[in-house]
Amino acid sequence: MPQHTRALSEAGVSTPTGELQFGVFFQGVNSGTIWKAAESGSQTDFESFRRIAQTAERGLFAAFFLGEGLRLREHLGQPHALDVAGRPDAQTMLAALASVTSHIGLVATQNTTYNDPADLAHRLSTLDLLSGGRAAWNVVTTDNAWTGENFRRGGYLDHADRYTHAEAFVETAKAVWDSWGPDAVARQGTNGSRPEGGASRRVHHQGQHYTVDISPRLPRSAQYRPVLFQAGDSPAGRDFAARQADVIFSGHPQFDDAVAFRADITARTVRAGRPADAVKIMPASEFILAATSAEAVEKQAWVRELQIGPQQAVAYLEQFWGRRLDGWDPHGPLPDVGPAVEETSETRGSGFHGAKAAELTAQWRQEAAEKEQSILQFVRAKAGRADASFVGSYSEVADKLAAYAAVGAVDGFNISPWLIPTGLDDIVNHLVPELQDRGVYPTEYRGYTLRENLGLAVPERASVGEPAVR
Ligand SMILES: Cc1cc2nc3c(=O)[nH]c(=O)nc-3n(C[C@H](O)[C@H](O)[C@H](O)COP(=O)(O)O)c2cc1C
User: Fold this and answer.
1) For 272-334, where are the alpha helices, taking DSSP H only?
2) What is the DSSP letter of 388?
3) Ligand 1 centroid to 204 CA: how many Å?
4) H/E stretch holding 64
5) Which CATH class name applies to 3-293+386-454?
6) Tens of pLDDT along 176-188?
7) I want to staple 195 with a disulfide (CB 3.0 to 4.6 A). Which of 14, 199, 205, 317 is the partner?
8) Could you cite one Gene Ontology molecular function of this protein (predicted)?
């Protein structure tokens, strides 16, 4: 038995579905999307979102995905001059997209640290209702204190506490969604649309961080409740996903890593008392495709050049060094100076999370020296998410993906297009048919709700309507 198959069967993954699903992750702000090519659209115009969502739907994608950042990105304490500015609110954007799409799932990333559960549950229920059961919530905890400065309660939660809070938050939201009985669907017309007595139960939660005492305002949706995605990779984040999530948006797209991640999540899911296959996994990924592999490699060089120029490369390092490095030549070696702080977990940039700055920067200097890479070359390889890239001809990449499907390493991929709004065209026009020919990609939508299309079971109504006190 091949090693990866053994790893999966030991973890309890016995019957891979043999099928992959695609999601599209419209990132907006980041260095992964090229905003300055002649073909680039706008990061805020509805047209960009509409075009990507409709192309994805033409390609039978399961989900359209929006990230969340609750503050304009800063760099060394100033608005990030090399980043595009502006990110529309995810739920509002998805509500607009619901009216120009019919099958694709609409996933809003929303954090549990700066929202309130009963309110968020109601807004997501509304999206679920008006999209006919296509809403999903990507649960994140948000890992920087500077986001917290924007909120009355500030950046008050450390890592472990954020997950305790997240669990209470999600359980409360689920209690809200569970609160209406199966027959308590609002009926047409003024007479029949009132809930009958006892049709819904009151949700009460009193915990460390918030108190909820409400009668939820909406009955269940066509897919029972929004699908729950989760993104967060620490052991606490993985256990949280194993207990609560339907799908993980993971950062593990490479084959061996994906297999190891699947085995780890399956073991955690079983320990949490859920079926081994209860949690689907869709890693972040990028596709650079062409008719031949030589053309794809050429295209990759062009993409990397436009994603990260000399200034972006230096700015990228500055996030980790915590200081200005503008005197350093982007075509020369990595800076031979230490970072401004030895160790920090929360800074205004995004580079320091959990990383020990001194250790990390020393390691990078050594790595770049060994590979004889300049700052620019090093950052293009590091920040360009080389590990998440699938580069090759349509058929080569299709063969590669089919190998993931065969062993059940993942349930699909969440694709970040490097060009907006045309970045999915070659995937939908060429890769999807190749995958369909190999029998590893759907040829039609299974149903209308996201839950149906992802092949997820309808949740059982919780027997107790009150979440545990946390
Ligand atoms: C693939 C992925 C995507 C994420 N997307 C977002 C996002 O859009 N907004 C956000 O605030 N946090 C996002 N996060 C960060 C998580 O919310 C979390 O705060 C962070 O990963 C730290 O938790 P961890 O230590 O469990 O990984 C993302 C994390 C991952 C792994």
Assistant:
1) 293-307, 310-321
2) G
3) 28
4) strand 63-66
5) alpha beta
6) 998 887 666 555 4
7) 199
8) monooxygenase activity
pLDDT in tens, 50-99: 999 999 999 999 999 999 888 888 788 787 777 787 889 999 999 999 99
Is residue 152's pLDDT more than 50? Answer: yes
Question: Mean pLDDT over residues 242-257, rounded?
Answer: 96
Spatial CA neighbour of 65 closest among 34, 90, 95: 90
Q: Which SS3 state, helix, strand or coil, does residue 428 take?
A: helix
Task: State pTM to two decimals.
Answer: 0.92
Q: Does the annotation list 445 as a binding residue?
A: no
Please, which pLDDT band fits residue 154 given cuts at 50, 70 and 90?
A: confident
Measuring CA to CA, how many Å separate 174 from each of 140, 170, 198, 392, 467?
Answer: 16, 6, 18, 42, 8
Q: Is 237 in the pocket of ligand 1 (CB under 6 A)?
A: yes
Give the start-to-end residue ranges of the domains of the chain.
Answer: 3-293+386-454, 309-383
Name the nearest CA neighbour of 16 among 455, 443, 451, 448: 455
Distance from the Cα of residue 76 to its chain's centroid: 26
Q: Is the CB of 253 under 6 A from ligand 1?
A: no
| Tens digits of residue pLDDT in 44-57 | 999 999 999 999 99
Selection from 278, 245, 288 nearest residue 386 by Cα: 288
Is the Cβ atom of 147 under 6 angstroms away from ligand 1? no
Longest dimension (CA), the chain: 75
| Residue scoring higher pLDDT (14 or 41) | 41
Which of 141, 346, 347, 414 for a ligand 1 pocket mutation test, highest count of atoms within 8 Å of Cβ?
141
